[in-house]
Amino acid sequence: MNAIVGSAGVILGFAAAGFGAISLVVGLIWQRPALLRQSITYAGLVFAGSLASFVAMERALITRDFSIEYVAQVGSSLTPPLYNFASLWGALEGSILLWALVLAGYILLVAIKFRHRLTDPLVAWAMVTMFLVALFFFGLMVGPANPFTTWSPPVGYDGPGPDPLLQNHPLMVAHPPMLYLGYVGFTVPFAFAIAALITGRVGEGWLVETRRWTLFAWGFLTAGIILGAWWAYEVLGWGGYWGWDPVENSSLLPWLTGTAFLHSVMVQERRGMLRVWNLSLLCATFALTILGTFLTRSGVIESVHAFTTSSIGPALLGFFAVIVIASVGLIGWRGDRLRSPGSIDSPLSREGAFLANNVLFGGFAFVILLGTVFPLVVEAWNGDQLRVGEPFFERMSVPIGLALLTLMAIAPALPWRKTNVETLATRLQWPAWFGGACLLIALALGQRGLGTLAGYGLAGFAAGAAIRQVVLATRRQGWRGFVGRTNGGMIVHLGVILIAFGIIASNAGVESREFRLEIGESGVIEGHTITLVDVYQEDLPRKVRTVAAIQVDGGEIHEPAMNLFRASGRAVPTPSVRTTWTNDIALSIFPVESIDDPIGIRAVYQPLIAWLWAGGALMAIGTVLSAFPGRRRKPTDPTSAPLPERAPEGASS
Amino acid sequence: MSDDLAPVRRGRTALVSASIVGVVMVAFIALLATRDHGDRETASALLGGPAPAIVGETLDGGDFDLDDLRGRWVVVNFFGTWCPPCIVEHPHLVAFHEAHAETGDVEVVSVAFEDTAEDVAAFFDEYGGEWPVLGEGVNSIAIGWGVTGLPESFLVAPNGVVVFKFVGGVTYDDLDSVLSAARGLPEEGLDDEDLLGELPEEVS
Amino acid sequence: MSSRRGLLVLSWGLLGVVVAVVLAVGTLGGAEPTPAERVRSLSGQVACPTCAGQSVLYSDAGISVQIRTEIAQRVEDGQSDDQILTALAQAYGREALLTPSASGAASLAWAIPGFAAVVAIAGLAFAFWRWRPTTTEVSDEERSRVEEALREREVDGGA
């Protein structure tokens, strides 16, 4: 029953996407508006299909319908309801199902939003692009990654449940959907970029209309990445939140190009420049989401995020190739005729700073992509096997990160067009002193090292610049000083700066100790005392759970545990973290043979970890604020003021 | 459709850039498409090179130095008393050692990993084996040989070059066929990785 | 005006001195890394041979624990970072190190980003050089047309 409904949903979605694309192309070529107007119907059908299959799969999971292979693979009668619900995206086929649902949702929303303009060729081509993307993902489910294949389970069969690591923390429920909302969301601006290239209409109109879609996709991706880091931190027990694993890198790549776009698009809206560059960034962002999906799921690069190797690798690579060739071909064909005549007057201007920003973000993405695929390239070149890991990425990202912080400090104070050094020096005076104060405080607190100190100083400088903007804007516009792109953007900046502080401090101050304690004994890490209070074992279905009650600084009791799964013999730790605003102590215990032995405890001390999560929250809030309309500017308003008398004073939206 | 485009063509920057990016991306995709998917096994870095030193005290109190065994083939076996496959392979090693005991052309040496001398002594009492055994505090020897899991064994040629690595438990037949194949190699070919690559694949 | 300007120069000059002093104090004469810090940093540079890409620092696989112990032992014996990494690379192969080497094909991992940085800076400089401000003559007629448009816009905006 579930399998039938699910398969029917997949086929409905596949067919609707296919027919939608065909009828739109026919309507566009033979100019039949009636056909173009049908796209909203097809969008509805695609969504209905994906929703039906999603609901069918969830129903199968909840009712433990083990006749579906996927449920037999990830389901188990012992999984708690929350993780059981989330196990839909715990393995390959289900993750494609979620992807298709999110994509169908976006397509339907676009169709509804543009319902009065469905006959506009720009919108129609965008719909065609999105239907083709949907066709691909539904095609995966019809073909190589069919989630609804059935089998006959033996009587009394019970599945193994999701991987133990995936049912260890509630963040696992939120992290993948967030990431997918981000990844898939970039389909919308990509589709409009392709449509703009096909129709040759790169006026700023469509950009303004898709800006918010891009912003939300970016916001979801940001949230997804940070939730992923948080999950790794809470669950893996190493005190690490980012490992530069290929899979983590491939989620960062579209984030970097997306961030570059969100900045450079302002130059286009304001000055009409960088049109082709912006289109390229949108295409690159979408292509990178597909590349990331390919790298995650094809097994071509070794990674800890083990998605079972499957046959969809070639399909994803082929799709990536189609996207790249279509984008590059369209840009090569159209690009030179779409380029705008404008030019940047001075490097010392807002647009100059955005350009530098783009170079830095583009360079960052390039370096990470290089490091991620470099082992493959060398192996193909001369057969040598090598690895590129954390030390490489850290050495690369420190200078780029410092340069970005510098830019973040200076750029908000720069006006459009051009300025002189004196104006800039006046505006940046207090932010710079704020940075200097941060530097002094860091030194006084015992921080050492050029990179670390420079990081604190520059982050403080950037924070000062952002706060100055917010203060000026609220003084001038009241509560509206918090909303709108520029003002909300400054809130996002403040979030980024909190994260920068957290990264710098935790890298500089990390301290890890291993203790072997008997009940009643204590150990000391960085001046904090941890005392083993009690040890007990719980016999649960499938696993034995050893819990150590540990008191930190004579205060709250933490209970890190070690779960020994009987069937697989796997030992999965459940760490416990003592969090304060100034530092974290992550506690985890080693597997034990008998609870009467001394317990091996690992304690990882890191300063300012909580700032990472607070910064992430602030970024999310800032993103929402940016999406609110700020001070209204009509599309017909001049995007730049050619007359010197009317040159804008100070930063305006 | 192209009427509303700007009439003036300004250079070919976009075309040229797109072409370059396109060529690079096609090469990149071709590269990804031709890569193996899945696990790859790497040959030991030691093959064809001089055997790392093994110096230490054996269980029976004697001094051991691998270099003293130059002129004979040596099977270096890394094992642990707590590792089930090591117990499985042990009789094969014993048989192999006995088969060569008379001619004395092959020596076996066992190096324990994460173990205690007591356990190792008990292990050899129970399962037999009359060859030098290094039992305790010798983990760094295994690290020096690039051991990643137990058991692992290496074949060292009379001139002190490592010619073969057995991953996992060995059998008498494996040892025998690798040894006779390695004997067939010219002396000066022992450090040639290509030639070593022609040694029989081990049967697992 | 000039006194304000003087103050500004003074303020920035002072800040420059403060920053230079702080950075000098915080960088020069810094303590040698402690053995524990060296073990941590070295462990972060060695791949766990049986895992998928983690360093031995972030792995509890048996062999990782042993390699960490070995590194700690060698640090205690007074070996240099290079000696320790070379020894491990000899035993486990070059792929045991997570940092690409500075020679051979692997050095491209370092050279290409450096090259890209040079190209990026040169490109940016070229773009700004090409976009030197061009002064366009604005005729009176154009000026009045713009003003008219702006007036109309304000009327619109009031509505």
Q: What this model shows, in words?
A:
- The complex is a heterotrimer of chains A (653), B (204) and C (159).
- With 653 residues, chain A is an alpha+beta fold.
- In chain A, a hairpin with a 5-residue loop joins strand 6 (561-565) and strand 7.
- In chain A, helix 18 packs antiparallel against helix 19.
- Chain A has helices spanning 2-29, 33-37, 39-62, 69-74, 81-86, 92-113, 121-142, 171-185, 187-199, 204-236, 246-271, 275-298, 312-338, 350-382, 390-410, 421-444, 450-477, 485-509, 609-627, and strands spanning 511-517, 522-525, 528-540, 543-552, 557-558, 561-565, 571-574, 576-579, 583-589, 599-607.
- Chain B has 204 residues and is of the alpha/beta class.
- In chain B, the strands form 2 sheets. Chain B has a 5-stranded mixed sheet with strand order 5-4-3-6-7. A two-stranded antiparallel sheet of chain B has the order 1-2.
- Chain C folds into 3 domains: 1-30; 35-99, Cytochrome C biogenesis protein (Helicase, Ruva Protein, domain 3, Orthogonal Bundle); 101-159, no CATH class.
- The two termini of chain C are 42 Å apart.
- The chains are: A alpha+beta (653), B alpha/beta (204), C mainly alpha (159).
- Chains in contact: A-B, A-C, B-C.
- At the A-C interface, helix 14, helix 15, helix 16 and helix 17 of A face helix 1, helix 5 and helix 6 of C.
Domain module tally of chain A: 3
Number of strands of chain A: 10
Oligomer description:
heterotrimer
Could you tell me the CATH topology label of the largest domain in chain C: Helicase, Ruva Protein, domain 3
Termini separation of chain C (Å)?
Answer: 42 Å
**Distance from first to last alpha carbon of chain A:** 55 Å
SSE-based structural type of chain A = alpha+beta
Low-confidence stretches of chain A: 638-653
For the record, what is the CATH homologous superfamily label of the largest domain in chain C? Answer: Cytochrome C biogenesis protein
Q: What is the overall shape of chain C?
A: elongated
Please tally the helical runs of chain A, counting DSSP H or I stretches of 4 or more residues: 19
When the domains of chain C are counted, the total is 3
CATH uppermost class of the largest domain in chain C = Mainly Alpha
The helix/strand order of chain A is: HHHHHHHHHHHHHHHHHHEEEEEEEEEEH
Q: SSE order of chain C in H/E notation? A: HHHHHH
Low-confidence stretches of chain C: none
Major β-sheet profile of chain C: none
The assigned structural class of chain C equals: mainly alpha
How many strands, what sense, and barrel or not for the largest sheet of chain A?
6 strands, antiparallel
